[in-house]
Amino acid sequence: MKLLKSSLLASAAFLAAVAGAQAADLPIKKAAPIEYVRVCSAYGNGFFYIPGTDTCIRLSGRARFEVGYAQTDSRTGGSGDTTGYRGLARINVDARTQTAYGTLRAFTRLEFASRTGSTQGIRSGTQERIGNAFQAIGQDQVGRVQQFVSTEKAFIQFAGLTAGRASSFFDFYAHDFEIMGGTGGSDLASTNLLAYTTKLGTGGLSATISLEDPSFRRNTIFSQEAQTSPAPQRVMISTDAFGRPVFGAVDVSQRNRVPDFVGSLRYDAAWGSAQLSAAAKELNTANFIPGYAADAPPSGVPIANFAGFTQRPASEFGWAVQGGVKINLPFIAPGDTLYLQGAYGQGATLYTGYSAYNGSYSSRTSTINGAAFDPYMSDATLNPLTGKIELSTSFTVVGSFLHYWSPQWRSAVFSSYGELKFAPGARAGNALAYATGAAGGSAAPVNALAGSQFTGVVGQTSFGVSPVLRDTYQIVAGASLIWSPVKDLDIGVEGLYTKVGVQSGRVVDQTRSRGAVTAANIANGNVKTVTADDTYQLRMRIQRDF
Predict the structure, then answer these.
(1) Strand pairing partners for 500?
(2) How far apart (Å, rounded) are the C-alpha atoms in residues 298 and 284?
(3) Is the model's pLDDT at 457 over the cut of 90?
(4) pTM for this one?
(5) In angstroms, rounded to a whole number, what is the distance separating the alpha carbons of residues 292 and 275?
(6) CB-CB neighbours of 346 under 10 Å
(7) What are the phi and psi torsion angles at 248 (to 5°)?
(8) What is the secondary structure of 481-511 as a DSSP string?
(9) What is the DSSP string of 379-391?
């Protein structure tokens, strides 16, 4: 027994020695060092280093709820809603790296929203027309429910260059103090561009040259037949043996040929800032539409078949200029600011901002839910008698004042005025080219002109009261009150008044008229006319930024 015990102890000692030797031969695994996220203070609050890199990044966003009310006297067509709702989400990513050439920056912003109701500014026809929003198709939802998805920003900045999707360098005030953005004035939050900015001297003066996507600054060449591509517009191309006109049809849907050219000169100082902007843009058409068949011209001569006809109207260049000043007013209250801005242009309603709130990318639309008439806002018309593109002229002026009653309470008051004029003879030329057939014409008076793009017939009552291509004016005034009980939380309400009118004469009230547009029906009240239409709207917003 004593011998067995000694053997077991010797075996255990041997095994322990062998195990210890083998363990000593194995590599020792050490835990990887933990790289903690480091704060990056070079670019302001909220930035931190991406682990393992020298790039600083900031994540931020926004959540917003809105409910709006707009009066309406009509339940025809797509109108009739008095309330609308919107829930919006925004995600921002800002990445910056310091290099030998300065800061390399990439910024992206995505926005998503659910919108309901047909009230202006909640559900957006403008965004739908450029593919940023998608409408529902249910019986009770079509035209009233909309999902909004947009790449609002995606640009790179490096050594003075800005490339990508960003705000236009033409813009200045851009509705900074407004909830609804109702005033006239350019506000193109997102476009595709390539720009270069340089400082001039050691002060706050800088200059920018920018090539910008023309698709987002086009407000149509007027077509009396369609507002989508192709958009046929009649034009006289010859006369027959008896001197009577022969018409073809040009597709006035514009093509991307050259970018818009934008330049700005900006000055920033302690008292505020000032900016002078200018832009030039091409207006063009496509070819004649081969084999176009339409109603006969006034003479009754059949429309010819123009298959193979390749000529097109010569392109024109529109232009716009804008000046603005921002004045800081700390002697009234910290944060108080005044904006003043004016813009003038030809063939450039989206640069002057005349259609910023009415709705863009359409020849006609309205700020008013169930409007008496829709104002026309095309950049140009194609003269049917000369085949030339003729530019419209527009201008806007706007003022906006922000006042802080206390650090938690602030208000803004704002107002704008604008006018738009079409080329002389544009209405009469279109009326002569479309004097019969679908327009009603000499064969039958135009029936109330409700929703129609037809000008009526020259010399008849229908022409005198048609809203098509009428020169118009626009007045906007509003005020807001916003409460910020804690940092980055806004609870506010805004009221807005808008008025749109014709500069001369009267137009048919499309919501209260019936029967043919004749002098007799106007006299007996079956057809009513107006010189202007107005509305008021209210919007409440709750918004959290983070």
Answers:
(1) 474, 533
(2) 27
(3) no
(4) 0.86
(5) 48
(6) 22
(7) -120, -170
(8) EEE-SSTTEEEEEEEEEEEEEESSS-EE-TT
(9) SEEE-TTT--EEE
